[in-house]
Write a structure and sequence with these properties.
Order of helices and strands: HHHHHEHEHEHEHEHEHEEH
Radius of gyration: 21 Å
Strand order of the largest sheet: 3-2-4-1-5-6-7-8
Number of helices: 12
Structural class: alpha/beta
Largest sheet: 8 strands, mixed
Distance between the termini: 28 Å
Strand content: 5-15%
Helix content: 40-55%
Amino acid sequence: MNLFKKIFSSEKKETLDKGLEKTKTSFFGKLSKAVAGKSKVDDEVLDNLEEVLVSSDVGVNTTLKVIERIEERVSRDKYLGTEELNRILREEIAGLLSETNTGEATDFSIPADKKPYVIMVVGVNGVGKTTTIGKLAYQFRKQGKKVVLGAADTFRAAAIDQLQIWADRVDVPIVKQQMGSDPASVAFDTLKSAANQDADVVIIDTAGRLHNKVNLMNELSKVKRVMQKVIGDAPHDVLLVLDGSTGQNAFEQAKQFTKATEVTSLAVTKLDGTAKGGVVIGISDQFRIPVKYIGVGEGIEDLQVFNKYEFIDSFFK
C-alpha cells in the first residue's frame, strides 16, 4: 500500500511539475533579467522584482506584501546577494500560502461525520466548473464513495447535458430537471435522492452568470435555504472554480462571488496551459480562502488536491 502511495505521489508530482512549466519558465526568465548584472539585493532589484511578480499575476497587494517582507530582511541582514533571492522568495511565498492553506492535504478526503457531504459548486461559465465536478466525482468514486450529482445550473441546456456526460462517464447517478426549472428545486430533489440512497457525497452544479449580482446572490441564497430543509447544515463546502489562465480576471470573479455567497474553498483550473500560475498565490492570499484543488491537465486524473509544499517545490524547482 505504501509503495502504491509513493508511486502515485511521484506521478502526481511529475504532472504538477509539467503543469507549472509555462509559469515557471516565464517567471524565472523575468527574474533572471531583473537581477542581471547585480550582486546584491538593492532598491533597483526590488523594483524589478515587484514588476516581475505583478506581471506574473501574483496581484498588486500580494506583491507589495512580498516586497515588504524582503525589504525587512534586506535591512535586517544588511547584505543579501541576488543568488539568495530564490531562496528568500520561496520562503516568503510559502509563508503567505501557509497563512491560508493550513495542513497538508494529500487526498480527496471528506469529513467522516457529514453524510452525505454536500458540495455546492459555483463559478462563471467556461472556467471548467462541470469538468471539475466530473473529475471530483471520479476521485470520490475511486475511493469507494457513493456520489450523487445535481444539475442545478438550469439556465443552460448545455450545462445539464455536459453534467450528464460526466455522470455517465464516471458511472454516478444524476438528478436533473428541464432547462429553466427552479435550481433550488433540483438541489432539494438531489439531497432527498442522496439521503434515500445513503450517498456519501453530493455535488451540486449551479448557474454561473454574473451579469446581475443581486439575482445571483438571491438564487444562491435560495438554493442554500432549500437544501437546509433536507440537511440542516448543507452545503458543507461552497467551492468556487476559477480559470487560472485568465489571470487578473480570476481575481475579479473571486471578488464577485465572495460578495454573492460565502465561499469556503477554491479550485483553480487550466494551470497547465498558461504562464499565469502565480494567480494561485495572489488569490489565496487576498481572499483568505484555501485553495483546495488545482487543475494541471486535461486527463481525468489531472485534478489534484492542492498541497502548498508541492506547489512551491514545483514552482521553484
